[in-house]
């Protein structure tokens, strides 16, 4: 397997960081449609009809406690774009993290090789 140089890995990290700077506004969470009864006994939903829809953003906060934020229908398209943009940001962060792991591994290998070369002398 061909080893990539540490300098090349660092350039790839910088490229992805630059892409992060070009990202649009985002919201960390998942956009979810929730369907339920409204509570009005005369409503169609209470008599076996279609349930009412509400859109929410679910977020994991401090201590992994889930929070839900109601999204008004008027801004749903914009919030959907934010949620989609978060997926892109998350992917970039995962790529940067993976490259960081590769840099650590390559640095360890380089130091190991240098140490072995020193002991041979």
What's the mean pLDDT score?
89
Indicate how many domains the architecture comprises.
Answer: 1
- CA(first)-CA(last) distance: 28 Å
Helix content: 40-55%
Question: Largest sheet at a glance?
Answer: 3 strands, antiparallel
Counting copies of identical and different chains, the oligomeric state is: single chain
Secondary-structure topology with pairs:
Blueprint: H1 6-21, E1 30-36, E2 52-60, E3 66-71, H2 76-120
Antiparallel strand pairs: 1-2, 2-3
Structural notes for this entry:
It is a single chain. The protein contains two helices and three strands; from the N terminus they run H-E-E-E-H. With 121 residues, the protein is an alpha+beta fold. The chain has a three-stranded antiparallel beta sheet with strand order 1-2-3, with helices on one face. Helix 1 (6-21) packs antiparallel against helix 2. The model has no long low-confidence stretch (mean pLDDT 89).
